[in-house]
Amino acid sequence: MRIHVRHETAYSYAAPPKYVIQKLRLSPRSHEGQHVRRWRIEVDQDCRLIETADAFGNIVHSFTLHDIVDELKIVVEGEVETEDTAGVVGGAVERLPLPLYLRETDLTCPDAAIEAYAAKYRRDDSERLTGLHDMLADLHSHIRFDTSRTDSGTTATEAFALGHGVCQDFAHIFISAARSLGIPARYVGGYLVQTDGTVSSEAGHAWAEAHINGLGWVGFDPSNGICITGGYVRVAIGLDYLGAAPVRGSQAGGQTESLSVHVHTEDMGAQQQ
């Protein structure tokens, strides 16, 4: 696929803050099955974008605004060529040892209910992939996609107990269950084009990756019940959402910050056929 992405994040402030600091994990890297043709980030205020990489290998852009502003807009636009690799992620930047991805976090720490659920899908090493596929299908069937019941601070255990959630919650539950089985797992943030070729939404997409001996990292999207395909653009990874959040920041002063996000993804190849 040749996927075009436009991601707009807009802030407005009832009273201007004294300063704003933002960190952006909004730039994908090329790897097997994913080639970044072009990509740019624009901020509508006078600032300097500083590019670094975090411990996970994610590209991070940061900036600070000292000028008084009522509004702030960040626009990401680019094009990525992808191929279907049957879910296997190869050639990506790997900076950390596998055992790190067994580490529990506040958002992914399992409780007895998740541990009992995951135990149903425990398999020998040779059948581990099959077990994860079975768990993927079951989560997709039994957790309801619902944008009104959870937020960015909802934990895996809370979403599992509710039986509702968004893609972030599905990913956290899958990660929590996989780690309880001793399988390294991590959170992935990025973008998705559905089978009709176009998606407009108020957020990007999230899924999980689990490490399978002999294959490496494999992407699982429990909110859609499938392994990742050529319709996915992989941007950032982390132990949970906080490590891969597309935009995180802080401010001093100001009142009543409001945020709006719009994401549009499109398969340009499909549009030309």
Characterise this structure.
This protein is an alpha+beta fold. The chain has two domains: 107 residues, Immunoglobulin-like (Sandwich); 157 residues, Roll (C8orf32 fold). The protein is 19% helix and 44% strand. It contains six helices and 15 strands. A hairpin with a 4-residue loop joins strand 12 and strand 13. The protein is globular and about 60 Å long. The model has no long low-confidence stretch (mean pLDDT 93).
List keywords for this structure.
273 residues; alpha+beta; Immunoglobulin-like; C8orf32 fold; 2 domains; 6 helices; 19% helix; globular
Which CATH architecture of the largest domain would you pick?
Roll
How many beta-strand elements? Answer: 15
CATH T-level fold name of the largest domain: C8orf32 fold
Rg over CA atoms, rounded to whole Å, is: 19 Å
Fraction of residues in H or I helices: 10-25%
Structural class: alpha+beta
SSE order, as H and E?
A: EEEEEEHHEHEHEEEEEEHEH
Described by the principal axes of the CA atoms, the overall outline is globular
Largest sheet: number of strands, sense, barrel closure: 7 strands, antiparallel
Q: Under the CATH scheme, which class of the largest domain?
A: Alpha Beta
Number of helices: 6
Low-pLDDT regions: none
Mean pLDDT: 93
Q: What fraction of residues sit in β-strands?
A: 35-45%
Distance between the termini: 12 Å
How many domains make up the 3D coordinates? 2
